Structures are given as structure tokens and as C-alpha cells.
Amino acid sequence: MYLDILFKVIGGLGLFLFGMDNMSKGMQKMAGQKLKKILAALTTNRFIAIVMGIFVTALVQSSSVSTVMTIGFVNASLLTLKQALGVILGANIGTTVTGWILALNMGKYGLPIVGIGAIAHMFVKSDKAKTRALTFMGLGLIFFGLELMSTGLKPVRSMPEFVQLFHAFTAHSYVGVLKAACVGALLTAVVQSSSATLGITITLALQGLIDYPTAVALVLGENVGTTITALLASLGANANAKRAAYAHTIINIVGVLWATSIFKYYLHFLENIVDPVHSMPAAIATAHTMFNIINVVLFIPLIGYLADFLCKVVKDDDPIGKERVTHLDVRMTETPSVVVEQSKVEILTMGTNLKEMFFKLDNAYQNPDNLDENLERIESLEDTLDLFQKEISDVNFRILNGNLDEANAEETRENLQACDEYETISDYILRVTKTMKKLRDNDIELNEYKITTLSKLHSHVESLFDDINKAYELRDRDLFVSSIKKCNFIKEEYKKARREHLEHVANNIMPAMLSTGYMDILNNYRRIKDHLYNMIEIFAKI
């Protein structure tokens, strides 16, 4: 008997959690394009941030995902603390959608939904259709898991020891309410899914093992327990990210304190909306939703004060600490589509830095006296691009090794290749500049013809880079293809300059360092052209 109960409850909980995970990931993939617009939307006022928090959490069906993503945005300096607080408040409302899904009480339809989803997944071909099928199957697993737990717990009603255990934390007094809230918080912190504990709460209430007030008290505590995910995500993050995580906990704890202090009145208010006698699941979902809506309304005018308080309590980061150069963070990998979009922004920033490197090198040709100053700046930019490559690669390889759909996986691979090509180009620009300095330090001067030849070649390569960078930004295949003509022209110019130099070497005596140095510069420009041509092959698929 006991084993039968245990197996059904554990099996049901496992299927429920697996279903939630499948549905959440599926919703994220289907909402990918919408999630890409978040970065622009979240830079406005707190009310927009709250709306976006509701929207994103409702889409991905996980407040943990949206709050961890928010922590990542703050850590990457894409969001201010006040904006993050708005998103977190919105996430608290958005997560209540799950309660209404559970309140549908469709347990008996769970298994057929799983079957339909699994069969569809076997026969459909496109990634988008497979994602929809998995999401649908995840929904079925949620209902089927709840049904298993409910069936497993039915015999418990007639077992005095279990009935006594559940009565130990009934919400019939203020202390009892706090006990029930603590149990809900602890259970959610362990499971790390408020949706799972909400499902368990609804199941226990349906089986008559707990009454409505106890269920509401458990739900209050679950709102506190779910903040453990954000707290864990903030470990190792910067001061502002920690403040955002602490704010999430403070907001929910304060909410539970006011709700428990007026618990009887709160219950009366809820019972006027939905009668638990006629619809227990809907009444519990209502309690979850109303608590979070009221709490958000109370905190909206306090966002600024809360942010100021946390800034005083949590010390700023050590200024000596090494700052990141990109706005990417490993915590953002919960939403791969956002990582893909932000990676493109960061690579375009790399392009801007490369543009400056080209300008500084050109200035070195035109004004040899400024060579040292230009070299110093080029070295600094090259070091920065090395950091860009590392940070972009770290985050993108994480999502590439995860469960990415084919479209995002392809774009991630393209971004990684573009990032590598840009970083390599920066290496060659630095080598050209260092070669020029080496020649000058050894009192070897390039004649006017060679300077003019290199300056023209530089101009053609820079023009090619501008076209490739613009084509990458616009994902313009035609512009990539049309750039092949410039590649071929540069190739011919390189061959011409190389042939002329070799003929000159054969007919004249010149220092070996001059000959090899000039050829090194020519070859480095050819290699830059080759890496830009790699970009054409990658994006034009030729």
C-alpha cells in the first residue's frame, strides 16, 4: 500500500516536472522572435518593464527563467536595477498563469494529450512542428502527472497517521498560517519549481487532505521559496545583480507578511471572487494571482526607495575588479534567442573597433610621426577584441551545447565564426603596424611608391571590410555576393604589388629586412582579405 502510494506520487511528480520543463522550453523556442525584442523594450520606464515581465513569464511558463534572465541582464549591464525590479514584479504576476493551467483539472485527458503529442513528434518533419508537438506533449505530462499524484494520494485520506501529519500545519491560527507558509517555502526551495508545489497543493486540496485556508497559506509560502533560484543565480554576479536577486526575495517576503497579518480578511476577499466549495483549483489559482497582483500594486511606488535601500546595503563592486567588455552573461543562456540577438550586437561592436583600427593604421601611413601613438591604440583595441571573442564564445558555446532549434543553432554557429574572423583580422592589423614600427626602429624607410601601394591596398581592404560588416548587420546575401568582385580585385592588386617587388629585388640591392618587412605587410593584407572572404562563404552559402 505504502509503496503503491509512493511510486504513484513520485512518478506523477517526475512526469509533472518533466512536462513543465518540456512545455517551458518549447514555449521559449516558439517565442524566440518575441524574446529578441525584449532588450529594446526593457530600456524604457518601470511600467513597461512590469508588462514585459508579465509577458515573458507567461510566454516561457517559468518565473525562474525570467528572473534568472533578468539577473543576467543586470550583471551584463543591459538593465538598471530599477528596470530589473520592474521585470521581477511583472514575473511574479506572469507566473500565476501556470496556476490557471493547473486549475483546468484535465487530468483524465493528460494521457491522450501525451499520446497525440508523441505521435505528432514522430511524424512531423520541421523543427517548428516538432517543437509544438513537444510543447503539447509537455502540457499532457503536466495533467497526467497531476492525475497520478491525485490517484496515489487518495488512500491517504483514510490513514490516520497521514491525516494527523497534515493537520499539524493547518492554517487555523496565525502561527498555523506561518507554519503552512514556511512549509510551502521550504518545499518550493527544495524542488525549485513553484509550479510543482502549486500542483501538489491543488492535489492535496482536491483529495481533502488540506483545507482551503491551508492551501492559500502554502501558496503564499511558495512565492518566497521560488526566490531561491534567483538567489543562486546571483552567486558570483556583480553588486547590481545581487541587489536584484535580494529585491525579489524582499518583495515576496514582505508580501507574505502583509497577507498573513490580515489572513482572515484576505480569505474573505478571495471567497467573494471564487467559491472554493464549488471549484477548489480555481480558488487556489485565484489566491495565487490576487496575492501577486496586489503585491505588485503596493510595490510599484516603492521601486525607487527599494533600489536606494539595496544600494546602501549591498556595497558596490571593487573598482579594481576586471569588468566585462560585452553585455553577455552565462545567466542569459536560459533564453538562447536573446543570446543570439545580443551576440550579433556585440560582434557589430567588434566591427566598430576594427573600423577604428583600420583608421589608425591608415593614419600611420599618412603621418609616420604618429606611428607610436597609433600602435598603442591598435594594441589596446586588439586586446579588447580578444576579450570580446572569449566572452562571446563562452556564452554561445553554452547554448550551442544545449537544446537549440536548428534556426538558432545555425545563427549561433555563424556568429561564432564571424567573431573568430573579426578577432583574427585584428591580429593582422596589429602585425602590419608592428612591422612598420620594426622597420622604422631599424632606420629602414619605405619609399614613396611602396607607401602609396600599401596605402591603396589598405583602402581597398578597408572598403571590403565595410561592405562585409554592413552585409553581416543586415544579413544581406546579395551584398555578400557582390563583395566577391572586391575580393578578386584585391587579390590581383596583391599579386601585382608582389610581382613588382620581386622584380625590384632582383634588379636592386636592398636590406633584407626591408624586403621581408614589405612582403610581410602585403601578405597580412592578403590574409585579411581571405578572412573576409570566409565571411562571404559562411553567410552567402557559396
From TrEMBL:
One annotated GO molecular function: sodium:phosphate symporter activity
Keywords: Cell membrane, Coiled coil, Membrane, Transmembrane, Transmembrane helix
Main location: membrane
Cellular component terms per the entry's GO annotation: plasma membrane
Gene3D superfamilies, per the entry: Phosphate transport system protein phou homolog 2, domain 2
Recorded superkingdom: Bacteria
SUPFAM superfamilies per the UniProt record, alphabetical: PhoU-like (SSF109755)
Subcellular location: Cell membrane
Residue ranges of the TM segments: 44-64, 109-124, 136-153, 212-233, 245-267, 287-307
BP terms from Gene Ontology: sodium-dependent phosphate transport
Protein name: Phosphate:Na+ symporter
Source organism per UniProt: Cetobacterium ceti
